[in-house]
Design goal:
Helix content: 55-70%
Order of helices and strands: HHHHHEEHEEEHHEHHEEHEEHEEH
Strand content: 5-15%
Radius of gyration: 44 Å
CATH superfamily of the largest domain: Histidine kinase-like ATPase, C-terminal domain
Strand order of the largest sheet: 2-1-5-4-3
Distance between the termini: 83 Å
Structural class: alpha+beta
Largest sheet: 5 strands, antiparallel
Number of helices: 13
């Protein structure tokens, strides 16, 4: 057989079959080619002997020689087929064309036979080569598919408690027998390595992500692919030590991207579940605590009020009892807030909605907030045509009261507080703007978390961090939005948006 064909015991690259018309540089391959040609020459000799003994005509023995040449082209390649063709024409001329036992080299019959044999050898060897290429590609594709299936299965079975980015490179390197694998994860900016990795491998993985492009270097047996979720790059992958087709490399990159996204989803799911359980525990504790402290607070408030009403106390005693009475009222208000927060967190909570004009509700709330001096600081702007909303009057009143009370407490004394109502179809938006404490960008969402207080508020009025969390829960229950914006030039503004009544029908 020729060196261009698979030979038992000799390992070849199934991805790149040798061209049968290209000379081999391997002495071992040349030796095998000689042995292969010798076998076909022996076949020509046997056919010649049989044809001569059985008195075959030149046409009959010519077909026999053609069959041998075809076999030589299929199983040996073009070079052994050429040698076989020359030997067959020589034997045909010497043993079967008259005068026998003599050579007539200039006879056109010899050149015609040689041309036919060579043409057959060329066509058959090329067809055989193409068939071998297709077979090698099919085998390689099947092997790659099996490896991709195996690596996908192993990635899906990875321990969820561990970072998959640190495990995937080792799995890929082991499955595909690579020299080095680098997985760059954009979310954490970490490069996970496995094998004998170079600086070029890591830089290639990073560049693949940042440039959102793929690069293949067959001469270095390396490729660099971007990890994508849809069209968005989420990382980069460097594979070194083997030539990969684009299809296989992209499939590996997709598997890695899906595995990383899957791990992130699990992480978010675990975090959300832990947060939910923590909130349930916190709500239960708050509910129990509020109920437990209301009874002694009621007794304290009753006793202090009774002492003040009974009289007969000195001025100092009266001041102390009044202080106790005021603080008892503060604690009672806190207990009511805790109970309200716990009630809002119940799964069966539903607001009692009715058609409400927010301008009317805001004006009523302002009339019950703070003292007369504080109420005089509000500047209200209402549009000529207002869209009504569906809202629980009591709950939304408490939400507005909290925002307005915060504006009074955390703004500069005596500074104006602007309240503006606007209709932005399909929503009605209430804006409360004050000039005082500036909220940092990183805290503008966190201030709506329960018990969170922004840095700098410790020096201001005392608070529990419950008010704005209750506001958000009330607004969420009404399918609305609440957010804050703040800067030194324009002050701090709280926005509360509710869908119009027509939008909800």
């Amino acid at each position: 057989m020729d060196a261009t064909n698979p030979i038992p015991g000799e390992k070849i690259d199934e991805r790149q079959p040798s061209d049968p018309l290209r000379p081999s540089l391997s002495s071992r391959a040349m030796f095998r080619a000689v042995l292969s040609s010798s076998g076909f020459l022996a076949a020509v000799a046997v056919c010649t002997w049989l044809g001569f003994r059985l008195h075959f005509t030149p046409a009959s023995i010519g077909f026999v020689y053609l069959i041998v040449v075809v076999f030589a082209a299929v199983y040996g390649g073009f070079r052994p087929a050429t040698v076989t063709s020359i030997a067959a024409v020589t034997c045909l001329d010497y043993f079967f064309f008259p005068p026998i036992f003599s050579f007539t080299i200039s006879d056109p019959k010899n050149w015609l036979a040689l041309g036919a044999f060579e043409f057959t050898a060329l066509i058959v060897s090329r067809l055989s080569y193409r068939a071998q290429v297709r077979a090698a590609e099919a085998i390689a594709g099947q092997h790659d598919s099996e490896q991709l299936y195996e690596i996908s299965r192993r990635i899906l079975l990875l321990d969820r408690s561990r970072d998959p980015g640190a495990l995937i490179p080792a799995l890929i390197r082991e499955s595909f027998g690579l020299r080095a694998v680098v997985l760059f994860e954009a979310r954490s900016a970490d490069a996970h390595r496995s094998g004998n990795c170079s600086e070029e491998d890591e830089q290639g993985a990073r560049h693949a992500h940042f440039l959102n492009s793929d690069r293949f270097e067959p001469e270095k047996s390396a490729c660099f692919c971007a990890l994508r979720l849809g069209a968005l790059p989420v990382g980069g992958l460097a594979l070194s030590g083997r030539k990969f087709t684009p299809v296989v490399a992209h499939a590996l990159a997709s598997v890695c991207a899906i595995a990383m996204e899957r791990a992130r989803s699990f992480e978010q799911e675990y975090s959300a579940e832990a947060t939910r359980q923590l909130e349930q525990l916190r709500t239960a504790v708050l509910d129990a605590l509020a109920h437990e402290i209301k009874t002694p607070l009621t007794v304290i408030a009753t006793a202090s009020s009774g002492l003040l009403s009974a009289g007969g106390l000195s001025e100092t005693q009266t001041d102390l009892v009044a202080l106790i009475d005021d603080q008892a009222k503060e604690l009672t208000e806190l207990a009511n807030r805790l109970l309200g927060a716990a009630r809002l967190d119940r799964a069966d909570f539903k607001p009692r909605r009715e058609t409400v004009l927010l301008s009317s509700l805001v004006k009523d709330t302002i009339g019950n907030v703070g003292d007369q001096e504080s109420r005089g600081r509000f500047r209200i702007s209402v549009p000529d045509h207002e869209t009504p909303v569906l809202a629980d009057r009591k709950l939304m009143g408490s939400a507005f009261a909290q925002i307005l009370d915060n504006a009074i407490r955390y703004s500069k004394p005596g500074s104006p507080i602007e309240v503006e109502l606007a209709v932005a179809d399909p929503e009605v938006i209430v804006t409360v703007r004050d000039h005082g404490l500036v909220i940092a960008p990183g805290d503008r969402q966190r201030i709506f978390e329960r018990f969170y207080r922004a840095p700098g508020t410790e020096q201001g009025p005392a608070g529990t961090g419950l008010g704005l969390s209750i506001v958000r829960r009330v607004v969420d229950a009404h399918h609305g939005r609440v957010w804050a914006e703040s800067d030194p030039e324009h002050g701090t503004a709280f926005y509360l948006a509710l869908p119009g009544a027509e939008e909800l029908h």
